[in-house]
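Hey,
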Amino acid sequence: MTAMRALLTLLLLALGSSLALAQDIKLKPGLWEVQGSMKTSSGRLEAAMAQMQAELAKMPPEQRRQMEQMMRANGMGAGGNAMNHTVKICMTQKDVDLDQIKSSDDCTHKVRRSGPKTLQMSFQCTGSDGSGPSSGEGTVNLDSPTAYRGQYKMRTTADGQPEQMDFSQQGKWLSADCGKVKPLGQQ
């Protein structure tokens, strides 16, 4: 689940940084709801998630409630389905005003093409954080300052085997006030 959270955070940070690059695009800062789905080429991750769901269902009610609270605190919906999920993120004015993608020690990002409502990006991560090397690309379409859609492909290695993950997401702006949700990169 940590790898899933790391991937989602990477994509959201890249998205927040990337969308500001297209000159006609200006997202509203604040609280966003992001719905996403992921599919792997091998199906192993889906099987592991199904097993986790089965284990969760076997837990005593109090323990299950604690696990679900922990998952919600980490941005996952109740039930913990990381393959299809909804998270809330906070994008600050600084996030939407960035004029370039910030690379981390582990990952580099590049914009390959942008237009008034479309942005294509690529990323490459060394895996120095223990997650293994990965690379990918994505396209983000801005429907309005309060809505976007994205499609991404990521190539990585899982248990020594090549794996491709296809990820799609939709974001919608909820409020200027993020409430208790911490800004991107501060989770």
